[in-house]
Amino acid sequence: MYLPAHFAETRSAELHALINANPLGALVTCGPSGLDANHIPFELLAEQGEHGTLQAHLARANPLVEQIVDGMSVLVIFQGPQAYISPNWYPSKQASHRQVPTWNYQVVHAHGRIRLRDDERYVRGVVARLTREHEAASGQQRPWKMTDSSPEYINQMLAAIVGIEIEIERLIGKFKLSQNKTPEDVAGAAAALATGGRHDLARAMGKSTP
Length: 210
Description:
The protein has 210 residues and is of the alpha+beta class. The protein contains seven helices and eight strands.
């Protein structure tokens, strides 16, 4: 990934926060048929390993299950808020007319080694934790629980998936938030984003004002 120094984010806490807030990652692998990408919700265990560990599950019918070799290198891409940035939003454009369109975004690349965890206890734990976390975040008065379904049905569903675990070896963050612009231009673009409802990216830009 092209990464100018002023867009590099190296703080583990910030990188982990983006993953936790945007857990649907693109798992990129290279197998016999070439490159492949699977979009999977991950659980991050931040304290497990030097950079953390990712856990998830795959459908047993997914061809990737047969292609995974324990210890093979993989990449998981997590994307945070992103949006188009118009030159018209920069106050300096009105004076100099020396601005062009761009795109601001936050992404984290997690490089690591994957292994299959094809045991019922592991898979049940991953599903239970993911379900509990995201049901709680959904704002429902009565969140769904695994016990809402019969044990036989849950066992059937669990038998159709396998677990995966990725030991993260490198975390690379690119937070492109107009750090190469003046504070006035950052504020102008952030205000326009907020007006358009993109408060998440506007807040991130405000935190990174040079």
